[in-house]
Amino acid sequence: MANTDSPIRHPLDALTTEEIERAVALVRGENRLSARARFALVWLSEPAKELVRSFKDGDPVSREVSMTVLDKEVERVYRIRVSLARGAIVSWDEVLGVQPPVFGEEWDLAEAAAKADPRFVEGCAKRGIDDLTYVFVDPVSAGNFGFPEEVGRRLVRGVAYWRENARDNGYAYPIEGLISIIDLNAGKVIDVWDSGAIAMPTSRGRYDLEAVGGARDGVKPLEIVQPEGPSFSLEGNRLEWQKWSLRAQLMPREGLVLHDIQYDGRPVIYRAGLSEMVVPYGDPAQAHFWKAVFDAGEYGLGQMANSLRLGCDCLGEIRYMDAALADEFGEPFTISNAICIHEEDYGIAWKHFDARSEETEVRRLRRLVVSFICTVGNYDYGFFWYLYNDGTIEFEVKATGIMQTCALDPGTESAYEYGAHIAPGLGAMNHQHIFSVRLDMAVDGDRNSVYEVNVDREPISAENPHGQAMRARETLLGEERGAARDVCPDTSRYWKVVNPNVENELGQPTAYKLLPGPQDTLLCDSDSPMAQRGGFASHHVWVTQFDADEIYAAGDFPNQSDPASAPHGLPRWQEQNRNLDNDDVVLWYTVCHSHIPRPEDWPMTQVERTGFTMKPQGFFSRTPSLDLPRSEHSCNS
Predict the structure, then answer these.
(1) Distance separating alpha carbons of residues 511 and 589, to the nearest angstrom
(2) Cα–Cα distance measured from residue 586 to residue 446, given in angstroms and rounded to the nearest whole number
(3) Which of 60, 262, 588, 599 has a CA 20 to 30 Å removed from the CA of 103?
């Protein structure tokens, strides 16, 4: 288990609690912040690639810490960078017209403000709720629709639910049509939308074993045992396994980030992590039309990471990493077991039976799993990076938890057009989960090119008399304009990241290819505020020239970002039309799952999986897993 106060030996070591304390103390020591200043995010300022690449064990480590601070007293937002080595402020900049993420204190503030407002209390009473003890209010990010009374305010919209008791599942009882618009700086409700009372659903939604009548019979223990321990080693945040090496840490906004991914000493990806995600909902009613939550940029996925438990979240011979983060008061806290690391058997890597010699050679594939899980309100997300011992890299999102629900008028459930009837009087809205993954590519070095590959079917001709010819056609994405691309199953489209300066034994440039999974695209209208704020979701693949400041696909401050000033993030960066050929390039991939609810998703959504794969293509000159050991049970014995 990585210690959150261990000595710093490398520029990419994770932040420690002691470093957070020192950085915050330096900022407070400037006496430029009021008592109402809040530290929305505190994170490691990553050093330049050149510094990391030239670093040698024993070299001095110079560390910098960045933070986003909201001073509620003056309603100003600052981006601050601190040098711990010099004990000094490097930069202190005010950022105008933006809102940082919603933080923990504001969850409680929003609920208290709603329950103290007479309009909200009256709305509950209309629905038969006079005792607010078991009413809870989720502070959902407000978006930006240009409503005059909301301009310039730090807002959330409160979505209310009721529970019969403290253990109940409140999402079974939405207080439909009652939305509080809450000013988080002022700590009060500025408006209440009440579109009319709808009867409370009657179905219970508890999912604990006591409520469902106990566990099924016949499930016998399943144990995964490695009596000699795992095949990987973990020192600090550096991980080595089966020719792979990398560094892992939990960032407060993105969650799990992997650095310096190498195979057998050869670089593949310099930095890999989730950049942003958004969940737009598809019901146009007043209570729901505005829902499109940018979970990373508006809340912070790392801040909401779970402490994982052996046998529950992870099974096998597990190693964990703790994570040191800062709360809104600048106080460090530790999430124990924030990152889970283990290896899994993944079936056959390759096999052949030679009928002439009657001998069989077979090898089993393994993968290293590096993961974390976070909870954002009603939904839970698991983010998994898989490294296979044949050189393959895979990213997978597992979405679970509880759907956003709505109450339906009795007798009209079957007519609900924008979602599904999932229980008596209860509906769930159609919605999407859209994730942008940022891959700072480094295939055998930082100078790479990206090609789109389409497999053409050729018509019958003199050269192709039987119509079976297939040709892979490569197109260089040489500049940023035109490097926003989409999946095309008809041509088996994929993308290849090539190092034109390094060749394999066959004289081919070394490369990795990105294989998309089955993916959707953004279903919102292209002129909608959601599409303007989250333009990254409009395409599957984006390629940009590397810029250390371009990390977040929807921009640095998506919370209440203004659609009128779009494009934000990726679409804006591509307008620079920078060179992408034989350059330092970043590959962005949009993973999307459109969730059309089913009754089987209630009360608990079973895991929905989506992701993509990166496979070596010419990175090796032959099958890279030939040297895998035989299993202890030889096929020919």
Answers:
(1) 17
(2) 10
(3) 588
Give the H or E element holding residue 111: helix 104-116
User: Which neighbouring-strand residues pair with 342?
Assistant: 369
* Placement of tokens 């933080």 in the chain: 103
The amino acid sitting at 75 is: E
Q: Does the N-terminal peptide bond of residue 267 adopt cis geometry, omega within 30 degrees of 0?
A: no
Question: What is the DSSP-derived secondary structure letter of residue 583?
Answer: B
- Residue at token pair 């209390």: 121
* Beta-ladder partners of 271: 259, 440
Spell out where 424-555 has E strands: 426-429, 431-441, 449-457, 470-476, 484-485, 494-503, 509-516, 541-545
Pairing of strands 233-235, 188-194: unpaired
- Digit-coded pLDDT (tens) for 143-183: 999 999 999 999 999 999 999 999 999 999 999 999 999 99
At 410, which amino acid appears?
A: P
Q: Which of 161, 281, 379, 416 is catalytic?
A: 379
As separate numbers, helices (DSSP H) first and strands (DSSP E) second, the chain gives: 8, 31
Closest to 156 measured CA to CA, from 324, 291, 64: 291
Letter for the amino acid at 598? R
Residues forming beta bridges with residue 64, ordered by sequence position: 45, 83
The residue count of the chain comes to 637
pTM of the model: 0.96
Taking the C-alpha atoms of residue 97 and residue 305, their distance in angstroms, rounded to an integer, is 29
Percentage, residues of the chain above pLDDT 70:
98
User: What is the percent of the chain where pLDDT is above 90?
Assistant: 94
CB of 418 closer than 8 Å to CB of 284: yes
**CA-CA distance, 175 to 159, in Å (whole number)?**
8
Phi, psi at 82, each rounded to 5°: -125, 135
Q: CA-to-CA distance for 270 and 53, rounded, in angstroms?
A: 10
266, containing H or E segment: strand 266-280
Q: Which residues contact 145 (CB under 8 A, 6 or more apart)?
A: 290, 529
Amino acid 239 reads L
Selected catalytic residue, list 295, 520, 584, 601: 295
The continuous run of DSSP H or E covering 125 comes out as helix 118-126
Helix (H) or strand (E) holding 27: helix 17-28
Pair 435, 612: CB distance under 8 Å: no
Structure tokens at 64: 């910098």
Helix or strand holding residue 51 (H, E): helix 49-54
Q: Strands of 174-183's sheet, edge to edge?
A: 135-141, 155-162, 174-183, 188-194
Contact between 408 and 428 (Cβ < 8 Å): no
DSSP state of 579: B
- To the query of whether residue 451 is one of the catalytic residues in this protein, the response is no
Residue ranges of domains in the chain, CATH in brackets: 17-95 (3.10.450.40), 104-212 (3.10.450.40), 233-349+366-616 (2.70.98.20)
Q: In the annotation, is 379 catalytic?
A: yes
3-state secondary structure of 14: coil
| Nearest C-alpha neighbor of 605 from the set 378, 337, 363 | 378
| Burial grade of 566 (CB within 10 A; 0-12, 13-18, 19 or more) | middle
Quote the CA–CA distance of 477 and 481 in Å, as a whole number: 9
